[in-house]
Amino acid sequence: MSYQETSFVTIGQRLLANPLRVRFHYGHPDVFDRVFHLTRGGISKASKTINLSEDVFAGFNTTLRRGHVTYHEYMQVGKGRDVGLNQISKFEAKVANGNSEQTISRDMYRLGHRFDFFRMLSCYFTTVGFYFNSLISVITIYVFLYGQLYMVLSGLQRALLVEAKLQNIKSLETALASQSFIQLGLLTGLPMIIELGLERGYLNALKDFVLMQLQLAAVFFTFSYGTKSHYYGRTILHGGAKYRPTGRKVVVFHASFTENYRLYSRSHFIKGFELLLLLIVYDLFRRSYESNLAYVLTTYAIWFMSFTWLFAPFLFNPSGFDWGKIVDDWKDWNKWINQQGGIGIQQDKSWQSWWNDEQAHLRHAGLFSRLIEILLSLRFFLYQYGLVYHLDISNQSKNIVVYVLSWVVIAFIFLLMKMLNIGRRFLSANHHLTFRLFKACLFLGVVATIITLSIICHLSVKDLIICCLAFLPTGWGLILVGQVVRPKIEGTGLWHFTRVFARAYDYGMGVVLFAPLASLAWLPIISAFQTRFLFNEAFSRRLQIQPILAGKKKH
Hints:
Elements lengths: L1 H16 L16 H5 L15 H11 L20 H19 L2 H9 L2 H10 L1 H27 L1 H11 L4 H7 L6 H5 L1 H11 L1 H13 L2 H22 L18 H30 L5 H24 L7 H16 L12 H8 L1 H4 L3 H22 L11 H28 L4 H25 L4 H24 L1 H4 L3 H29 L2 H11 L1 H5 L5 H5 L5
GO biological process, one term: (1->3)-beta-D-glucan biosynthetic process
Pfam families: Glucan_synthase
Keywords: Membrane, Transmembrane, Transmembrane helix
């Protein structure tokens, strides 16, 4: 991050000022011509939402009034920057929010109309275009995976590959397996290599670049790419940009699992799980006819991205694999997820308060953005539609009744959860034994139903696995739809059930994320290795890191 900042304030600013002539105002080091600005719109801006990145709007004002923002280098000084992943993510979320507001501002519209063709493109790619392109890249990955899934589930890919083998056409499989080897994480690091080469020589720059890759720079940049695309896209669709204070304090301390989950659940973890599920389903259904090499070449970058989005916050978290911290995190997580929310209860104390706060962008959303949100949620139901016809129990039937029956099964699962919830509310406090008997009866009933279906309708274990893979995303899609139509169902029992269901999903995702961390924490060498690669500079200076990490002892 510090290398990226260095390249941005040096080689980046030089290029923007000359020859592109599209440099604007980028923060505190820039100096205003006060008299010029007081007579041309003033320095302060009117709206804390549209003008969230108010610095850059001063540059827009200057350029629109035929001014020119120059860049003069006379001294390079260090500045207190965000040094922890959580602080960096908050900062990048704020900048992405600001860029989405710039995209729909009249200032950007006027600049686009008044610039010549080359300055217009320069302005686009150095401001909102970078964020728009990152959003398009992520959307393209989704389109690619859902398209591949359609081809596999419909049998189209099999037919194409079989026909290609019969005709001895090699180019088709090559085309299906083609993908750029140069990843976004490496491309993002290119400007900093040039700047380091200019200042310290290209051999030193190459050494630093290799060291950065060993310190998982590609993981960091891929993760931050997800942050930019999520907050840019959400703000474009619903608005709700806000200032996010980062603190900029010394962050050599352990961030709890709960804090990481709150920060990254909706921006990274959900997307990571969805991509992982799509990759697994695609792998299961293509195995009989497609070579493993073609699959690996096609999907290795998406596997890397999904694992990065799921586990990067824990990888860059000091003492992330310390067993004592893991135990404390688990207790804290259970307390947070079960705590009831309400007026005055902060989101770091209760899951319910956090969940309500996460939907703040939907409260004032218009009809059009709500419809788009519902349309995006329909992908989960289409995914379920594709999978249920591959069940052995369906006997290869293509009748719509199969899909309708899958919804009957989902309704039955909802009913079971509702019964469990009612039982917990009325029986768990004073009638423990009755509640346990009730749960045992429900469990035995479900097992008896599965056994009966396996005998009569030939339900297989493969069917049960496919059902799990099909119905889990459907449940999440229903939760998303419920959140969008919240004003209509808030006063009903349906909303309470949506909340219960959402809590169950969050708890499940938390457990799936926590399990590998706890497993790795059993091995002491993992914690030592992580501390070493996070604080390599400190170790080379023989600084004592462990006492700092330990912090104040709890009395």
